[in-house]
Amino acid sequence: MPQLSVIVYGPNAQGHLTELLDSLEAHPLSDAEVVVAAVGDWARETAEGHAPDTVVVPLPDGTTDAAARAAGAARATGRWLHFVHAKDGLP
Questions:
Q1: 3-state secondary structure of 89
Q2: Domain 4-85 belongs to what architecture?
Q3: What pLDDT is stored for residue 63 in this prediction?
Q4: Is 47 within 8 Å of 55 (Cβ atoms)?
Q5: CA dihedral 80, 33, 30, 25 (to 10 degrees)
Q6: Which of 13, 21, 38, 46 is deepest in the core (most CB within 10 A)?
Q7: What are the boundaries of each domain within the chain?
Q8: Cα 50 to chain center, whole Å?
Q9: What is the DSSP string of 29-83?
Q10: What crossing angle do the helices spanning 16-26 and 41-48 adopt, rounded to 10°?
Q11: Interval 44-68: pLDDT, tens
């Protein structure tokens, strides 16, 4: 079981999800998993095209942020949960 689950949630608005997942791939986290609660087909397709060990939770368009966070948390296996919106960036 990983210590940390990074739960990315939300739609792929203006390509921000792609940038965020690229950043996570460029800076792999040890003892962590990435769970993407992908809202809509575009977000799902984007997430599935990234690292093979990324857990993708497909959700329909219009899913609220709260529901997406809950769905991601339900699939997470880490001891700690960290939520990152798809529009947010990581250094």
A1: coil
A2: Alpha-Beta Complex (3.90)
A3: 96
A4: no
A5: -130
A6: 38
A7: 4-85
A8: 11
A9: PTTEEEEEEEESHHHHHHHHTS-TT-EEEEE-TT--HHHHHHHHHHH--SSEEEE
A10: 20
A11: 999 999 878 899 999 999 999 999 9
